[in-house]
User: Which sequence fits this backbone?
C-alpha cells in the first residue's frame, strides 16, 4: 500500500499541480525556487516569473519600500527647476519691475517701459509656475512648458523680421523643452509628484539608485571627465566597481553591466584624449 503510494501518483501529481492551489495544474516553475505554480500565481519580479512566496520575500517588499522612500520626495529636477529656478525668476522679476519704475520716473535704463514690463510679467508667470513646482503641485509639471513657449512669443513680438524670429525660436525653445521633457518623463520625478510608475521603471530605477549605483555614477562621471580630467580616475574606479557589482543571479538581480562597460569605454577615450592634449601642449 505505502509502496504503491510512494512509487506512482503522489510524486507525479504533486509535481503537476500548483504549490498553492492543489486543484490547479501547474503552468510554470518559479524562476527562483523552482516551485510549480499555476497561471494565476505567476508574478513578475525583476523581469522573471516567480511564485507569490518569492515575490513577497525576495524583492516585492524591497521595491515597495523603495517606492515609498521616493514618494513625495523632491528630486534633483525639483530642486533645480523649482528651487533654483524660482529664486532666479524672483530676483530677475524684481529687477525688471524696478527698471520699469525707474524708467517711468525719467531715469535711463537698458530697457524701455513696455519691454521691461513685459519681461517682468513674464518672469512673474514663471515664478508662480516654478514655485508651484517646488511645492510639488501636479499641474505645475505641465505648466512648466508654458515658460519657453511664452518666452518664445515674447521674443517674436519684440523682433520685427522673420529671420530674427526664427533665430530667436531656435535659441529659446529646443534646449529648455528637451530639459523639461527629460524631467517630465523621469520616473523618480513622477514619484516625487506622487504619480505611479510602471513596475519596469521602478525596477530600473532601483538598479540606478540602489543595487548598482556605482555603474550609473561612473557613466555620468565619465562624461563630465571629458571636461574635468582629474575625474577620470574616479570614473575608472567606479566603472570597475560597477562591473564587479553585477550579479544577474543574485536576488534581487544586480544589473548595470551596460552602463559600467560604456563608462569604461568613455573613460579610456578620456584618458587617450587628455594624453594627446598634454603631449601636444608640452610640445608647443
Ligand atoms: Zn518561488
Ligand atoms: Zn496557484
Assistant:
Amino acid at each position: 500500500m505505502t509502496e504503491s503510494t510512494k512509487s506512482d501518483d503522489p510524486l507525479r501529481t504533486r509535481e503537476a499541480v500548483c504549490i498553492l492551489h492543489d486543484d490547479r495544474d501547474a503552468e510554470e516553475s518559479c524562476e527562483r525556487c523552482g516551485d510549480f505554480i499555476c497561471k494565476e500565481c505567476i508574478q513578475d519580479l525583476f523581469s522573471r516569473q516567480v511564485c507569490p512566496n518569492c515575490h513577497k520575500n525576495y524583492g516585492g517588499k524591497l521595491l515597495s519600500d523603495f517606492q515609498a522612500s521616493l514618494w513625495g520626495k523632491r528630486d534633483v529636477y525639483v530642486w533645480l527647476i523649482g528651487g533654483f529656478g524660482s529664486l532666479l525668476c524672483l530676483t530677475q522679476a524684481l529687477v525688471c519691475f524696478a527698471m520699469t519704475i525707474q524708467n517711468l520716473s525719467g531715469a535711463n535704463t537698458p530697457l524701455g517701459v513696455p519691454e521691461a514690463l513685459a519681461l517682468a510679467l513674464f518672469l512673474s508667470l514663471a515664478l508662480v509656475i516654478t514655485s508651484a513646482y517646488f511645492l510639488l503641485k501636479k499641474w505645475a509639471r505641465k505648466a512648466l512648458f508654458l515658460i519657453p513657449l511664452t518666452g518664445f512669443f515674447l521674443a517674436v513680438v519684440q523682433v520685427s523680421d522673420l529671420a530674427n524670429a526664427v533665430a530667436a525660436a531656435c535659441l529659446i525653445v529646443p534646449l529648455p523643452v528637451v530639459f523639461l521633457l527629460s524631467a517630465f518623463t523621469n520616473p523618480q520625478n513622477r514619484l516625487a509628484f506622487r504619480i505611479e510608475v510602471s513596475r519596469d521603471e521602478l525596477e530600473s530605477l532601483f538598479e540606478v539608485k540602489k543595487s548598482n549605483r556605482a555603474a550609473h555614477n561612473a557613466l555620468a562621471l565619465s562624461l563630465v571627465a571629458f571636461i574635468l580630467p582629474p575625474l577620470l580616475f574616479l570614473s575608472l574606479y567606479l566603472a570597475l566597481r560597477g562591473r564587479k557589482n553585477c550579479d544577474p543571479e543574485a536576488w534581487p538581480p544586480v544589473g548595470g553591466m551596460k552602463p559600467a562597460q560604456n563608462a569604461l569605454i568613455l573613460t579610456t577615450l578620456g584618458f587617450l584624449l587628455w594624453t594627446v592634449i598634454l603631449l601636444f601642449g608640452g610640445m608647443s
Residues 76-104 form the longest helix (29 residues). The longest strand covers residues 43-45.
